[in-house]
Amino acid sequence: MRAMTETAAKSRFVYHPAGEPSDSACLNTLPETASDAPRLVSSLFSISKSIRALTQLMIAEIGFYNGQDELLLALDKDEPITVCTLADKLAVRPSTASKMISRLVERGMIEKIRDSRDRRRTMVRITLAGLEAQCMLSEIRDDLEGQLIISLQDDVQAVQAAFERISHILKKRLKRLR
Prior knowledge:
Helices cover 61% and strands 9% of the residues. With 178 residues, the protein is mainly alpha-helical.
């Protein structure tokens, strides 16, 4: 098992009013039973896994894997993007984005081009085949969203606002830790 980073180790401490960290304080804050524990993160994990599993089943029918849909949907037809900017948009490491890009380049969905202002930089641009796939992926996403909206009815705006806030908080924290 990988050793904890100093930042991760510090985040385990509960701070007392005097400001002194205490390992044993964590034990004092544990719920007495599992049913007393907050369920937000567990719920978010469950939602995320269910959405990805359902999406995977839907996009597999048109020949895509998890993550490839996100990458194609993140591209703008009129604006090439750097690998690093795309990685930031997807909240993944540049090396992960590069692997995904390579697979989609092989399929003719996107192409790599040199930045016209700085020839050392590689840009990514969606192709016509990628735009057609992007359209199909958007339809799949819209269909899933429509099903969820019908199920949520009047709570849609509140749920959307809460998810956007959580997403912003998590992306901000991820950016600091990477």
